[in-house]
Amino acid sequence: MTETSFETSELFARLARELAEQGDLRQTTQRIVEFAVHLTGCGPAALWSLSPSEHASLLAVTDAGAGRLLSRIRHDIDDGPARTVLLSHQVVRIEDTETDPRWPRYLAALADAGLAIRSVLGYSLRLCGRQLGALMLYSAKPGYFTGDLVQIGSVLADHAAIALDAATATEKAEHLSRALQSNRRIGMAIGILMALYQLDEQQAFDLLRVASQHTHLKLRQVAEEVILTGATPSWAPRQPG
């Protein structure tokens, strides 16, 4: 990095704005790793998350080929710096993958895969006690991540955690909104079936469920058909007699 302090501040201000302007969580994660490469000159950069069963999974990467190999190694050997970052919530740095004594099986698999990775720097993305992911930077040069690059990566990780938290909250809110809307439409369909076939609420819901099974449509799709046509699609019950 050759920017002055002012130019660097401007760059991080731009980073904050761009991350806030991303359309969804997927775009946010991809922009984070792209910024990591731009700011540090590393290659590739990746963002990992921790599953409920404590396995690391790849969210975004700047090099698709490297991402496939890293994911395969992670699958075969459930260990490595990304998982350590996710579990320990600490910064992890590998000066040289050929001499580092930690994660021997993982680093051996990394070398066998032919990946041009000799140094690694990883940051835990945490906010308010929540683990949001691990930002991992890789370089083909041993000892690459020193001095200013470590500080730049730290600032980027802070911005990334805030952006991820906001994008995740927005996505959850959108999912909830869609679920509520879907439930309202299903409720409308239940009301139509209750009036049309003189059913109680449970019977009308069961009718929707069985129609969903018969037509291989999702429940909300069956509900939309009921609202539009007044009958279950392609499978109507007999009138009570």
Polypeptide structure, described:
- With 241 residues, the protein is α+β, with helices and mostly antiparallel strands.
- The chain folds into 2 domains: 5-167, GAF domain (Beta-Lactamase), CATH 3.30.450.40; 174-229, Winged helix-like DNA-binding domain superfamily/Winged helix DNA-binding domain (Arc Repressor Mutant, subunit A, Orthogonal Bundle), CATH 1.10.10.
- It has 8 helices and 5 strands, in the order H-H-E-E-H-H-E-H-E-E-H-H-H.
- The chain has a 5-stranded antiparallel β-sheet with strand order 2-1-5-4-3, sandwiched between helices.
- A hairpin with a 2-residue loop joins strand 4 and strand 5 (130-139).
- It starts with a helix and ends in a 12-residue tail after the last helix.
- The model has no long low-confidence stretch (mean pLDDT 88).
Query: Which superfamily, in CATH terms, is the homologous superfamily of the largest domain?
Result: GAF domain
Low-confidence stretches: none
The biggest beta sheet, please? 5 strands, antiparallel
- How many distinct domains? 2
Order of helices and strands: HHEEHHEHEEHHH
Distance between the termini: 81 Å
